[in-house]
Amino acid sequence: MTRAAVGFTVKSGWACAVLIAGAPASPVLVESRRVELSDPANADARQPYHAGFGTARGAGRTLSTLVASVKRFGRSSVGGLLRDYQASHSVRGAGVVVGSLIDPATIANDHIRIHALEGQLFRGVVQDAARRRGVPCALWRERDLLADAVKALKRPEKELRDIVAAMGREVDGPWRAEQKAAALAAWLVLAGEA
To answer: Are 126 and 74 in contact (CB under 8 A)?
Structure first.
């Protein structure tokens, strides 16, 4: 089996997943897809900590049910994806790209805190699903990813940007910032930086 790594860019209710394979010096894009982390049939599950625009959902049964639903649905979705990848590739690990690593408990602003809680929940779902499949995870903040890649892969920023952008020519569908970040995280994992 070909050595591979998967990168995830985690968003609210979904993640972009990119599988790359081959040698770390010249990785090849295998696939890019969207993975639902919350049940699309339940709109409230996409932002379970929100009661409405800018307001927090109070602790209680509704919140507990939504969070449990996200964990169950997301683990199944990501676990199935990883199982499929492991059937045809030797998956070395997963790189998870997130917007923030701030502890939500340290945030005074309610609206910002609920976004941080949701970010923590959704990245946790991806990490948990990977752990259950025996896939080690590395975590990067999106704003640190490129600088970390320059150091680890020992290539100039422009060259990394060009290589990752060129990978997108092989994809049917979008190749935006989310996909590029996921590809770069997967490349770091493939190169042993996890």
So the answer is: yes
Query: How far is it, in rounded angstroms, from Cα 83 to Cα 99?
Result: 26
Q: Are 21 and 89 in contact (CB under 8 A)?
A: yes
Sheet bearing 137-141, strands edge to edge: 28-36, 14-21, 2-10, 89-98, 137-141
CATH superfamily of 2-190: Ribonuclease H-like superfamily/Ribonuclease H (3.30.420.10)
Q: Which amino acid is at 170?
A: E
Are 71 and 125 spatial neighbours (Cβ–Cβ below 8 Å)? yes
Measure the CA–CA gap between 30 and 78, rounded to whole angstroms: 17
**How far, in Å, CA of 150 to CA of 146, rounded?**
6
CA 170 to chain centroid: 20
- 39-53, 64-78, 81-95: which range is least confident on average? 39-53
Examine the pLDDT at 57 and tell me if it is beyond 70: no
Contact residues for 59 (Cβ-Cβ < 8 A; gap 6+): none
C-alpha distances in angstroms, 18 versus 35, 63, 116? 10, 31, 24
Where in the chain are the domains?
2-190
CA distances from 184 to 24, 43, 159 (A): 11, 30, 12
